Amino acid sequence: MAIALTxxxxxxxxxxxxxxxxxxxxxxxxxxxxxxxQRIVSGVTASLAMxxxxxxxxxxxxxxxxxxxxxxxxxxxTGMKQRRLKTLLANDISLLAYHLPLxxxxxxxxNVQLARQLDITVEGPLEPDNPxxxxxxxxxxxxxxxxxxxxxxxxxxxREPLLIEEDRMVxxxxxxxxxxxxxxxxxxxxxxxxxxxGEASEQTYxxxxxxxxxxxxxxxxxxxxxxVQALGEYLSRRFAIEHLFIDCPNPI
Length: 252
Prior knowledge:
Elements: E1 3-4, H1 5-16, E2 28-31, E3 36-37, E4 39-45, H2 48-56, E5 61-66, H3 79-90, E6 94-97, H4 100-104, H5 110-118, E7 121-125, E8 136-144, H6 146-157, E9 162-164, E10 170-176, H7 184-189, E11 194-197, H8 202-211, E12 214-217, H9 220-223, H10 226-239, E13 242-245
Parallel strand pairs: 4-5, 4-13, 5-6, 10-11, 11-12
Antiparallel strand pairs: 1-3, 2-6, 7-8, 8-10, 9-12
Helix pairs in contact: 2-3, 5-10
């Protein structure tokens, strides 16, 4: 069964409410391919390796979290950009990308999906009075040591995380997938025992240590694999079309 590309894009927009979210890039259809869709391939980032995998999988649409045309970047289609776009266009594959809309969605969002993977009960946003907050806060059913929780993260994500460990049990957790290390101060203010994100900055260490909070950096890519899969599965069920998630590993 095939559906119109326009129908797929309209449903993704409606479901995510993408037009209501201010972002650093355009969300939605970034590159237009063939007008009919039978197979979606999803992945985290529209790298050349990801595009080539989509070509190999005979995708009509490549659905990603990290697409193109970020604010402030050079708009010239040369070098790496030219090779990526040329491959998409030569194979008539559409690129559908959602950044912040896929972080914050209450069902398929990266943060909610990561919580489900790690058995964290979502309680609410890191900053209840800030509607632009991306991160969440929640709790574990049973308190764990920071080291034991880091082992859970390792087992689930398949990647050994960076752990800054404090000698306190972990019950209340704050988290933001990807490059969310800058939210550690909001997490501390929310009274968490541990803050989890994808990356770390130099100052993150000091914020964690001096405030007695454990910290985990589990990988930008690793923490953001689940939202795009969930969105792809939703669209697949909605329109009875094929969906395949392909993980192009990234150690960052």
